[in-house]
Amino acid sequence: MAGIIEHIKSKIKGEITSPKAIRFSLDLVNLSIDHIHLLEEINKRTVLLEGPLVYRAIQRYEQLWLPLVAENHQQILAAPIDIEWIWHCHLLAPVMYHRDCENAVGQSINHQLLDGRKKLKALEISKSLWNKKYPDEPFDIPLNGEGVSPDFMYESHALSYDLVAAVSRQKHFYYQVSLPHFKDTKYLENSLMRYKKYLYLKKVNPEAFLVPCYDIDLIWHTHQLHPFIYRDETTKLLGKIFQHDDSVNERHPGSRLSKADAFTRTKWKSQYNENFANFGAMYRGDLPLNKLAMVSPGDTYGFSTKSAWIDIHKVKVDGLNGNIDKTKVKIYFACNLTKGPKLTTIRGLQREWNDHEKNHIKFEFDTKQFNQLKVSISQHDGTCISCFGQYDDIASTFYDFLPVLEGTGTRGLKFSEELTVNTNTHGALKVHLHGFIQPPTMGKCLLFLQNGRYDQCNMPLNSERLWGPIPLPKPANNMDENKCSVASHVLSNQMERLISKYLFQVIKSNGKIDIEISILGHLITRED
Fold this sequence. Notes:
Blueprint lengths: L1 H12 L14 H17 L7 H20 L9 H11 L2 H12 L10 H18 L29 H8 L2 H4 L8 H20 L9 H11 L2 H12 L17 H17 L24 H7 L2 E13 L8 E9 L2 E11 L3 E3 L6 E6 L5 E9 L10 E10 L1 H5 L6 E11 L3 E11 L3 E2 L5 E3 L4 E4 L24 E10 L11 E6 L4 E4 L11
Antiparallel strand pairs: 1-4, 1-5, 1-9, 1-10, 2-3, 2-6, 6-7, 8-9, 11-13, 12-13, 13-14, 14-15
Helix pairs in contact: 2-9, 2-10, 3-4, 4-7, 9-10
């Protein structure tokens, strides 16, 4: 009864008594998608993730941008991308951000995420103000390192927050939230509810160090990128600005992060009677920076299927006995020595057929369906003068046409092929095909998995290559924990050629986690 009375009193006072009662003035779902788009743009420019351009961006942020925004605080401004990245990292330390702004320019500086059209307009206004105030300093600087010494460094004078270290930590965040489901509004609506639960859990455990899953963290970061609103809303809920600490990253057993994770899971389960871990929201491993590369257009074209129009100008059969009356040649599509649809039939007394003799043969060859041509030769038995005589098969052969088409360039290719066919009645026959392949167009990429055999082994911890190109937390140095079933599987394309860059291993450990290691990516969680 006492608990019910206290609950009623809290309701009367307007206190938050459940996560559902928490309200935000921002559309954090759609803003989180805008946030991911921003991180996407930054991560395309890897020079902003480490090196001298980071120091240059910090210098521009402190010495040029903050004073400019302070002078024009009533306008909505947008920063060039190098400064925006530093600003973003600074905002994720909300307490120090407000303190640093006061120290640097005498006032706190607001920020907001903008969508495409609003951002373009804000950038135009910002650039105009910038050019008036700083005529000798470009608004947008080259992001190829031009004009910045490799040894350039900058030490901040007014900012107490270590922005170089913050960039080094935050450059890993986008990888954790870069999968498509983080742009799904239904998924993000659930993430928003989980963020409210996270805040409420902090409210009822004010002294606890709680850690979020990445779905919660994305919403939390997005909230912090609106510093005035974040300050007001978290202060109203928790009595002070909710500090965000991204410096705790050690994940080994017994670490502060590991203990906080276990504590958060326990408290979450107790408070909400549900698991804290969420599908698609767990740690994926470290950022594979400089470990993976995009497949080039040339490589993609090389191992994709292709289709092209083929003109056969001439068919000739050598080696037939002179007493043969009429000859018939049939050409079929084929795949792996299996006959497909018929393309054409040519017949007559002659042994050679040319396209100018009304025997023009034109067809489209698609390597997604076929890899060969089949040529069949038959002869008229000569027993009947009428046109209803019988044709007897003499021989047939397959022409591996796939490699010929694969070797065709953008200008097309003339081909001339001699096929040898051994027969019992005519000895060795020669079939000549002459024609032209039009420039191919790229089709689907067909990949086929060749399963390897699983073997038991101990995985050495000091060989990064064996653990795959994407960094993974290594297990403890214990022989029992490193015992694995290992198999090497191979992907090949429709030509049955090994695509070596897609050779990968699957490692199944005997511990709690199954690990798939692949150049294509990881499917790794520590989910409940």
